[in-house]
Amino acid sequence: MIDIYAYDDFRKLLSDLYEERRKGIPETTARTFAAAAGFSNPGFYHDVIRGARGLSREALSKIIGVYGFNGKQSEYFRLLVEYGQEKNAALREEIRQRLASRRARSRFARLQPEKARYYEDIAYPLVRTSVDAGHFCDEEDAVEFWKGRIPAVKVRHCLQDLLAWGLVRRSSLGFLDVADKFVEPAPTLGMQVRRLNREWIREGEKALDAIPPEERHISTMLLSIGSETQKKILDRIRIFREELFSLSEKEKSPDRVVQLSLLYFPQGGRKHNA
Predict the structure, then answer these.
(1) Which of 38, 53, 77, 108 has the most CB atoms less than 10 A away?
(2) pTM, to two decimals
């Protein structure tokens, strides 16, 4: 199964998708594919791959249909085509950033409302993340990892729930492992997420006294800015988060859990209407 989020070139993606389809359905030809997609010209698809033609919105929708892309995949594919066909350099960069954002979100498994308890106690995400960092054989390894930080009974309870929810699993070698590197809440869990964020902020307060300055970074900046800079800062924060997720995803030998919280909000001033 091709991962469309790994592509920056929609023409290369279309070529690989066609080859995958041809291998799965050997009788596939340019003519049978055109008929399945609803193209009147059998050579149209390959003209697009060669760069001889562009993709209209109608043709793009037909390709989405023939390959059965889901909502997120369709959104990414539309952006990928837009990026490949845009001539303006500034607009291309803006689309590239949106693609990077969609690619980053594709790595997240969404937790459904029945798993809301995960967001009701910071011990759950802490223990789950430590499973990725600790290479635990059993519960006692996790208890030792959090010794002096989270009570043993709570660590065991969290692991039992995480295993039951499918957020943690046992590998074929018997080690504990996370089912997904990153998770995100369903839109209906906003209240639980806000409560959890308050807990994360309080963890930062504790770190001011509990952790030596050379082992942490906690600082505050007050800036006077306008609406355009406001947008740029928010974009930079989003890109920075995506870069951190990418670094974590590529980590080969994690051995610790760290918290990085970003707080950005207005303290006062005039709000101009657009």
Answers:
(1) 77
(2) 0.69
